[in-house]
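Q: For a teaching handout, I want to show students what a protein-ligand complex looks like in token form. Below are the inputs, and the small molecule is dinuclear copper ion. Please produce the holo structure.
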Amino acid sequence: MGVLALAGCSQGGLEPAGEEAGRIFTLTWTLTLVGGIVSAVVLVLLVWGALRKPKGKAEDARAEHVEDGRLEKRLVIGGGIVLPAIILLGFFGFNLTEIKAQPQSGEFTLEVVGHQYWWEVLYRDLEGVEPFETANQIHVPVGTEVKTVLRSADVIHSFWVPQLFGKMDNMPGHTNQFTFIAEEPGVYPGYCAEFCGLQHAWMKFEIVVMEPDDFDQWVAQQAAPAPDPQTVLEQRGQEVFMQNACVGCHAIRGVADQAELGPDLTHLASRNDLGAGVIELTEASLAAWTVNAQAIKPGVNMPPQELSEQDLDAVVAYLMSLE
Ligand code: CUA
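A: Here is the structure, written as tokens, with dinuclear copper ion included.
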């Protein structure tokens, strides 16, 4: 079983791609294997004891019992107290060293705020750029200690990327933090691991692990304010955005900086998905989402928008220009 599961892991989405996930992987398998061996020994002894026939008559058996009393006591103390104590203390020590190996600082800080039902992602202390914000798609450089600070805007969520690190809760009114290092460039899916409401299952996100140069390029692009509208339609779209409810919830840096309720849309078109992974971002899906997000993701906090067809076309064209 263990071997089969291991084989499955090395092909599937559980192969660790970061130090923290690697430690969890080692701990899990060590505990499972040692626990499995102990269970197997206990089971064999149990079956052996149940099937063992007493020698001779009942009297002989009683006599043997008395004679062997010392051995049985030793078995109980040795197998029931000493051996478990050694194994458990060994595990305890192993756990402690693994926990101690956890990096504590970080070369920069990633702030992740859980919302019903999406992730707000803030980069506030990167050198040489203004603080900026994005949503659901997190980029980090490979081989770098990333200090991750978790908060929540509403209820408890839990931030989890199985291939990079274990679960940690986003708590309202409280800050949790940990540090991780991603060791392999790639895209790693993440999930909310704490039931938080109707769309808990659609709080997906991803961590894109990049080579340092690519990351710097991404940062420069994300930290820049929103690009100006290039066509009449996009210009009209920006007006629609400013004159309707959109601007009350969504910020577009350089255009409308204030709103904090919904995801920052400054570089919306650079992201792959809408609604925390619920649908791929295309002009059509963005239009459908804008008109009635409830139809795509029931229970989401974005109310339906009543826009004329022209205004909808314009605002979609504008938002899709925000690379
Ligand atoms: Cu957020 Cu479950």
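A: Two things your students might notice: The CA atoms of residues 70 and 76 lie 10 Å apart. The longest helix spans residues 58-100.
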